[in-house]
Amino acid sequence: MKTSKQIIAIERCVIDKFNGTRHVSNSQVVLNNGTEWNDICFHKPAQLTVSNSVEDKQLIYTAKLTFDSMSELDSQKYYVYRIKEASGRWLLIGNDDRPYPVTTYTNNHPASISDKQANEYIVSYKNRVPVPQIEV
Question: Which stretches of 5-60 are DSSP H helices?
Answer without folding.
Answer: none
